[in-house]
Design a protein that fits this description.
Length: 596
């Protein structure tokens, strides 16, 4: 530590970071860990997503759990077991091939995280180093009371109770952590289990049983997806969305905080919270493929928030349904070019489009007979909130200054019309008539003289976010404003097959921010809605190629450098991939995809 209490750059615990595309995710719904190519756990918060990190190397903080070959002259790789977040890291050295299978055990416990790591010598005799140092609260709390009892290592780190199994030849190192060197014959396997809990635990840590339960959980969680446009990537999207979704129903936007969207610009935020909009995108995407427990959890979480907060719905909550904390600094240096921020101010904004997306979610659930009386009541309250507040300025999808954003109004038009189609969500109000009134007012205020929808009543530029409500039926598909808006986005907001949100003054595309992958999938959906199937598939394929080596998407993609930008993994990007794949798969096979 330096004089200010921050981690020193020369501290051995603060290893050099990797580019974002090289990290993999393992997650259990209650929290997630990023695994780096060295076999280190670079990031893990416990017990919940928004709790303090126990491993914070991603942000330059202390705490480590590395498992990898002793020979550092190696080439790394890895893959996910299909349809799961079970990751297999793999290293090839001069003499050996070593693998480490890793996962967070599921089904998960909200007060207990269990990290499974299984080392295998695939070729040749392998020497494998194990290095463990849990540092709770972003590194503030070192391991203490480290002792070996009954074949297990036990310790404390702040409020956490630790148990570690598989460390037969482990010793306490000079930093107070645990270290070991394993020697495995060819074909040999060694299991390591780390438990971090809020209360003392006594249940046996049986690796075989934990792995069996985890494998079974993933088999039940992820459907086959064989009828979609990209079955393997669609299963991966399901796995990511399951991994980000708590048993409370909330789905975090991403697993991380403060990863930079653009270096040293201050645009780095804490995404470890559940955004209503993102949750709706995920539920709508799943509904396009078929009924699934992710749809049920999305409906339940969003309905609960609307029933509790009504027209004062927050854009974001913790996964348990509480307001996110105010922004504050962390005792870490931060990822290079990023920051050290936790908490999020978006929880205090008004974002009208969240109500429109919620209405679309409820209507999608009703199509599958998955909307109960509580959900139907929430749908009516959401429609009433739109009736009450649609004329107000608000922060919109991009969480900017309060203005009369076009996207928000069109999203509400889609939601109200979808609501009107289902008897279970009808009330005394004529929601279709309200949708017409909002559309007429928005057309008067926000339709550009050239015939395309502009960003806001006082901003004549295009916005790629407008593509989504247009694809979903805000206007008839023969309405010329759909084609003209898409053409304007193509002309002014695309480059090299990727889509950007909007123009930042006179700056060239790519200078102010990366391409927004969400918008790339929106372009694919809008193109598909126009009947341009082959062109829609090209947009889909181009956008889904912008992932890291593990198959994860961030929010943005730096086209010039071919790098990921922003927090990782971004749930709503995986959701829109799933939706595109579900809808385009039906088109490829000549069948009808699920309606809007």
């Amino acid at each position: 530590m330096n004089a200010s209490g921050m981690p020193d750059h020369t501290d051995a615990a603060a290893r050099e970071p990797w580019v974002l595309r090289d990290y993999a995710l393992i997650a259990d719904g209650e929290r997630g860990a990023l695994v780096d190519p060295r076999g280190g756990i670079a990031w893990l918060c416990a017990p919940a997503w928004h709790s303090g990190a126990v491993f914070s190397g991603l942000m330059g903080g202390p705490g480590r759990f590395r498992v990898g070959p002793a020979d550092h002259w190696n080439v790394w790789g890895g893959y996910y077991e299909d349809g799961t977040l079970i990751r297999v890291s793999r290293w090839v050295t001069a003499d050996t091939i070593v693998c480490c299978r890793e996962a967070l055990a599921v089904p998960a416990d909200t007060g207990r995280v269990v990290l499974l790591r299984q080392v295998r010598a695939e070729r040749g005799e392998a020497l494998v180093d194990v290095d463990l140092d849990v540092r709770a609260d972003y590194g503030r709390q070192a391991m203490a009371d480290v002792r070996q009892e009954g074949g297990l290592w036990r310790a404390r780190s702040g409020p956490h109770h630790l148990r570690f199994s598989g460390g037969d030849h482990t010793h306490v190192d000079e930093n107070g952590g645990l270290s070991a060197r394993l020697r495995l014959p060819e074909g040999g396997v060694h299991d390591l289990v780390l438990e971090i809990a809020t209360e003392p635990q006594d249940a046996p840590l049986r690796p075989h049983a934990l792995w069996e339960a985890t494998e079974r959980w993933w088999r039940e969680a992820v459907p086959d997806c064989s009828g979609t446009a990209a079955p393997r990537d669609t299963r991966m999207a399901y796995a990511v969305l399951n991994g980000l979704t708590s048993t409370h129903g909330g789905m975090v936007a991403a697993a991380t905080t403060s990863l930079p969207e653009r270096a040293d610009t201050g645009r780095n935020y804490d995404y470890r919270y559940a955004w209503i909009r993102d949750q709706c995108y995920a539920g709508i995407a799943v509904a396009a493929h078929g009924p699934h427990r992710l749809l049920d959890r999305a409906v339940g979480f969003v309905a609960d928030r609307i029933l509790e907060d009504g027209p004062r719905l927050r854009p974001a909550y913790t996964v348990e349904g509480r307001p996110p904390p105010a922004e504050h600094s962390l005792p870490v240096v931060g990822y290079p070019g990023g920051g050290d921020r936790a908490g999020n101010r978006a929880g205090r904004q008004f974002q009208l489009d969240a109500f429109g997306e919620a209405l679309q979610l409820f209507a999608a659930a009703a199509r599958h007979d998955a909307l109960d009386a509580r959900g139907a009541k929430a749908a009516r309250l959401a429609a009433e909130a739109v009736a009450e507040r649609w004329t107000e300025p608000e922060a919109g999808l991009w969480e900017l200054e309060e203005r009369w954003w076009t996207h928000s109004r069109l999203s509400c038009v889609v939601g109200l019309r979808a609501l009107e189609q289902h008897a279970s969500t009808r009330a005394s109000g004529d929601w279709s008539r309200l949708a017409d009134r909002i559309l007429d007012a928005t057309r008067e205020r926000c339709l550009h003289p050239d015939g395309f929808w502009q960003r806001a009543d006082d901003d004549p530029g295009p916005d790629a976010a407008l593509l989504l409500p247009l694809a979903r039926g805000a206007v008839e598909r023969t309405d010329p404003t759909l084609a003209r808006t898409r053409s304007e986005v193509l002309r002014r907001l695309t480059e090299d097959g990727h889509v950007y949100r909007f123009r930042h003054g006179d700056k060239p595309l790519g200078d102010a921010e990366g391409a927004f992958l969400l918008c790339g999938f929106m372009m694919a959906l809008t193109t598909h809605a126009q009947g341009r199937t082959a062109e829609a598939l090209r947009w889909f394929e181009r956008t889904r190629s912008a992932c890291g080596s593990a198959g994860l998407f961030a929010e943005e993609y730096d086209v010039a450098q071919r790098q990921l930008r922003g927090n990782l993994p971004q749930g709503f990007v995986h959701a829109l991939l799933l939706e595109c794949s579900a809808r385009f798969g039906g088109a490829q096979e000549g069948g009808a995809s699920e309606g809007w």
